């Protein structure tokens, strides 16, 4: 059984918020509130996804479509979170650059990662967003 990402059409769906539109920067407090809420939603959805996966394992019945749907949903959520981080970084520390997050093994850690994609070490805490502009 192999898990693959959704077909390109789904994966390429545009994020909820268009990035190209230039708007005034929302107040940092508002961004932080949305970020906090999304982080909680994300934790819950991750737990659900893990529980669902475990249940499927127990029954030896993998419904890939269900898992993929939830992964897509989580992907969108993380996209918005990354966007919020970028907005916050712009609002809070204009011009200041941050080092990108790295694992002890030296591999770059992507936003929201729990494990290093290279060595599998658990990542402690939420890494700072990798500067991308
Ligand atoms: Zn690593």
What features would you describe in this structure?
- This protein is an all-alpha fold and 133 residues long.
- The chain has two domains: 8-92; 99-133, no CATH class.
- It has three helices and no strands.
- It has helices at residues 8-11, 28-59, 64-92.
- It is globular, with a radius of gyration of 17 Å.
- The model has no long low-confidence stretch (mean pLDDT 79).
- Zinc ion binds next to loops.
Features:
about 130 residues, mainly alpha, 2 domains, binds zinc ion
Summing up helix and strand content along with how strands pair, one would put the structural category as: mainly alpha
How much beta, percentage-wise?
A: under 5%
Our count of helices gives 3
Total number of β-strand segments?
0
Q: Quick one: biggest sheet?
A: none
Radius of gyration equals 17 Å
Q: Segments where pLDDT lies below 50 for 5+ residues?
A: none
How many distinct folded domains? 2
Overall pLDDT confidence: 79
Straight-line distance between termini: 38 Å
> What is the approximate shape?
globular
The ligands bound in this entry are: zinc ion
Order of helices and strands: HHH
């Amino acid at each position: 059984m192999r898990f693959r990402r959704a077909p390109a059409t789904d994966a390429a769906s545009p994020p909820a918020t268009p990035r190209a539109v230039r708007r005034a920067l929302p107040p940092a407090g508002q961004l932080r509130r949305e970020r906090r809420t999304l982080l909680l939603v994300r934790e819950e959805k991750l737990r659900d996804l893990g529980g669902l996966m475990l249940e499927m394992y127990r029954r030896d019945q993998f419904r890939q479509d269900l898992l993929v749907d939830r992964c897509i949903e989580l992907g969108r959520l993380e996209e918005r979170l990354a966007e919020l981080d970028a907005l916050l970084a712009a609002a809070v520390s204009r011009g200041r650059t941050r080092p990108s997050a790295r694992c002890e093994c030296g591999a770059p850690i992507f936003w929201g990662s729990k494990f290093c994609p290279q060595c599998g070490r658990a990542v402690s805490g939420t890494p700072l967003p990798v500067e991308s502009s």
